């Protein structure tokens, strides 16, 4: 029996709206007087729910969809309990991180979500054995599951802090960055690449560098973690390995992109104008992200990146919004898992404008901080942009769930 993919993806879009709403609320608290709710608690709720309720839930659902399209008579319904458990944990974190921050109940839901991810990894890895071994997506998915599991190790120290009350700033930050790195650059990135390569139906026999791309990214993922720790004054040998890892990923991505464009495999998909533009935006976003990683190995740039919070936030949102979230929207639309009409284009356009403005303002805010100056009304601008992002996502969600009989598909 197949899993009802469209039903579970409805939760994805609704959850994305909730993530955007929390973003609006946090920006309002910064720009205006709003004494209710703790800002730190909102941040924890926002980030945990974005990771679990939006990205992880959607990735799990569309990865199951991929197996259902590739394996005959595949039983996707067996994943239902895992998806439900993940959603329960997500909504639990959403509520209790707001209510109590890092309290007993929120930590229990957070810990439970980690174990749910273990169950998913076990089951999905088991089912991957049924796939044709020539399919390139298989290795990307295996790596994604592996990185998702090891990312959770970073959270164990955070739990240790809560229990023992022993806080060491350097180890605490290293643990946080460890978790974020193997979520962003491991679980999220490798799962999305697996879906993209699966969407293109790439095989090992298509081009020798396609498999090499995976190997280079997988190997480089480990040393690239230390980009997050450059502020610790790493020894020279470790800095060299880190720079090499960042360089390898840039090389692998641009060569992969060049071969893909040259082979015209994307052209053969006959994507609609809207989907083509979204895919182009994603590729540009990922290219910028990888180049910024490499640039951060320069001591001055590294000091700038870690010394100013707006730049860190801009980078994290670049990855989560312009690359990961936009890709998930692209994938669901390209596979026609939702309705796609002309009115939908307006919502995605607003969302894209919001992403560009958000990155631009945050970058300028970070740059002006170098001279200890500020942009007038910057928090008001960011609040307005947060509303723009929320409106774009709501419109996209509405016209994805509601079929418009008056407009033909895009």
Mean pLDDT: 88
Q: Can you give the helix content as a percent range?
A: over 70%
Q: Low-confidence spans: pLDDT under 50, at least 5 residues?
A: 404-410
Question: What multimeric state do the chains show?
Answer: single chain
How many strand elements? 0
Distance between the termini: 31 Å
Concise synopsis of the structure shown:
The protein has helices at residues 5-31, 39-70, 80-100, 104-128, 137-151, 153-164, 169-200, 208-224, 236-263, 273-295, 299-307, 309-334, 342-369, 378-401. It starts with a helix and ends in a 9-residue tail after the last helix.
Structure, explained:
The protein is built from 14 helices and no strands. The protein has 410 residues and is mainly α. The model is unreliable at 404-410 (pLDDT under 50). Helix 10 packs antiparallel against helix 12 and helix 12 packs antiparallel against helix 13. It has helices spanning 5-31, 39-70, 80-100, 104-128, 137-151, 153-164, 169-200, 208-224, 236-263, 273-295, 299-307, 309-334, 342-369, 378-401.
Provide keyphrases for this structure.
globular; 410 residues; 14 helices; disordered C terminus; 78% helix; mainly alpha
Write the layout of secondary structure elements.
Layout: H1 5-31, H2 39-70, H3 80-100, H4 104-128, H5 137-151, H6 153-164, H7 169-200, H8 208-224, H9 236-263, H10 273-295, H11 299-307, H12 309-334, H13 342-369, H14 378-401
Helix pairs in contact: 1-2, 1-14, 2-3, 2-4, 2-7, 2-12, 3-4, 4-5, 5-7, 6-7, 7-12, 8-9, 9-10, 10-12, 12-13, 13-14
């Amino acid at each position: 029996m197949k899993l009802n993919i469209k039903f579970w993806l409805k939760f994805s879009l609704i959850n994305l709206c909730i993530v955007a709403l929390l973003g609006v609320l946090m920006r309002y608290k910064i720009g205006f007087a709003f004494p209710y709710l703790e800002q730190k608690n909102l941040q924890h709720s926002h980030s945990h729910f974005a990771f679990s309720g939006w990205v992880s839930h959607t990735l799990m659902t569309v990865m199951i969809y991929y197996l259902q399209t590739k394996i005959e008579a595949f039983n996707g319904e067996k994943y239902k309990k895992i998806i439900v458990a993940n959603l329960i944990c997500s909504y639990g974190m959403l509520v209790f991180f707001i209510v109590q921050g890092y309290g007993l109940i929120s930590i229990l839901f957070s810990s439970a979500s980690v174990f749910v991810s273990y169950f998913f990894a076990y089951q999905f890895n088991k089912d991957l054995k049924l796939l044709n071994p020539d399919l390139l997506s298989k290795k990307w998915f295996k790596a994604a599951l592996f990185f998702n599991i090891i990312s959770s190790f970073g959270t164990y120290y955070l739990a240790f802090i809560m229990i023992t009350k022993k806080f060491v700033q350097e180890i605490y930050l290293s643990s946080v960055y460890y978790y974020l790195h193997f979520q962003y650059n491991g679980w999220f990135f490798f799962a999305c690449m697996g879906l993209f390569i699966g969407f293109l139906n790439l095989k090992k026999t298509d081009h020798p560098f396609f498999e090499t791309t995976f190997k280079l990214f997988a190997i480089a993922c480990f040393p690239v973690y230390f980009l997050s720790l450059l502020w610790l004054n790493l020894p020279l040998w470790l800095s060299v390995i880190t720079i090499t890892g960042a360089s390898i990923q840039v090389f692998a991505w641009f060569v992969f992109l060049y071969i893909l464009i040259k082979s015209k495999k994307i052209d053969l998909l006959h994507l609609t104008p809207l989907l083509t533009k979204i895919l182009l935006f994603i590729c540009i976003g990922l290219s910028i992200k990888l180049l910024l990683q490499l640039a951060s190995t320069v001591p001055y740039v590294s000091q700038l990146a870690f010394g100013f919070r707006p730049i860190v936030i801009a980078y994290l949102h670049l990855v989560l919004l312009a690359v990961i979230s936009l890709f998930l929207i692209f994938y669901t639309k390209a596979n026609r898992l939702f309705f796609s009409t002309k009115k939908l284009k307006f919502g995605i356009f607003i969302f894209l404008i919001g992403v560009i403005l958000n990155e631009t303002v945050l970058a300028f805010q970070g740059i002006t901080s170098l001279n200890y100056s500020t942009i007038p009304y910057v928090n008001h601008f960011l609040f307005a942009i947060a509303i723009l992002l929320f409106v774009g996502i709501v419109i996209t969600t509405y016209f994805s769930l509601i079929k418009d009989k008056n407009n033909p598909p895009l």
